Predict the structure.
Amino acid sequence: MQTIDFTPFYRSTVGFDRLFSRLDNLVGQEAKSYPPYNIEKVGDNAYRISIAVAGFANGDIAIESKENGLVIKGAKAPETEEKARDFLHRGIAERAFELRFQLAEYVEVTGASLEHGLLHIELKRELPESKKPRQIAINGGSGKTIENKSVN
């Protein structure tokens, strides 16, 4: 895997340290292939993560949102000997998984649903009022004007 050195950026920028720390963390993570998932933009400030979780029930999956991170964990209860099944072919992987996502500033999880073997996690970016653009009124002057007095 290729590594990127962000040290030169640390020397010449101010206030971007969190950005480069996040990039360092992302570069170090391996690409996860199980379970497969989609990330889609469903509106101007709305996103959806859809994860294929065939064979998992609501109680087998935990979703945790903390600071700017989202962690989804899935684990099936181990089968007891009386419930053990004898598979001739096992193509549906029900192994434990953990997916981690970095969320941008002000992105919050608004809901999650499990339907047809897909876990949908809804996300929305909500800017606080102090961060939204606002119009600044321009106050009128005192009405004084500068006169041009030229000497002939």
Summary: The first strand starts at residue 37 and ends at 41. DSSP finds two helices and seven strands in the chain. The two ends are 81 Å apart (CA to CA).
